[in-house]
Amino acid sequence: MFLSASPVPQTGVRHSTFESLRLGHSSQSIASGFLRFWDSLNFKKDREFVGITVLFLDEKVNSMIHGFTPVGCANHYMPSLKAYSIVKVDRFEVARCSSMYKTTDHPFLIRFISLTIIDEVITGAPKINLQSRLNCSTISNKYVLSRALTSPKKQLESLFVSSLIRKK
Q: Looking at the record's lineage, which domain of life comes first (predicted)?
């Protein structure tokens, strides 16, 4: 597992946009706003911790994708998860997002693997308006609430996620 100890002072960060992501293990890089993260729990197994879910914001307006760090990598990546920062993420897996765990409209999710590198970007980052998303609960709550209408189970899960999103 790789983790950079210091922020990346680069003059131009080469990266893919969320639209250009392709399925599978990837040598692609993304540079994005890192909005929020929360513990992912398995409610069928007494709220067992299964990993960390993260929300990324692309430079394209209203383009979000979620990421997932499995339990085996969670402790390793936790120190590099800093809400409201601009990060460059390298070497990750792109997978289809199951409708059961979908937190954004994007069809894919970014899964951290043992080779994933996360660096905070100091200079040369794409222009990402994180300020407009500091209260991202407006978009997320609309999405979460629309999904909550499907079943009682979804209602409970959505309320839990919604409460996490509102916390600052």
A: Eukaryota
Which tens digit of pLDDT belongs to each residue from 57-80? 887 656 889 999 999 999 999 988
Q: Are 37 and 30 in contact (CB under 8 A)?
A: no
Residue environment code for 69-108, b if the CB has 16+ CB neighbours within 10 A, otherwise e: beeebbebbeebbeeebbbbbbbbbbeebeeeeebbebeb
Domains of the chain, first to last: 8-129 (2.40.50.140), 135-168 (no CATH)
Per the CB < 8 A criterion, the answer to whether 111 and 67 are in contact is yes
Q: Where are the alpha helices (DSSP H) in 9-130?
A: 71-77
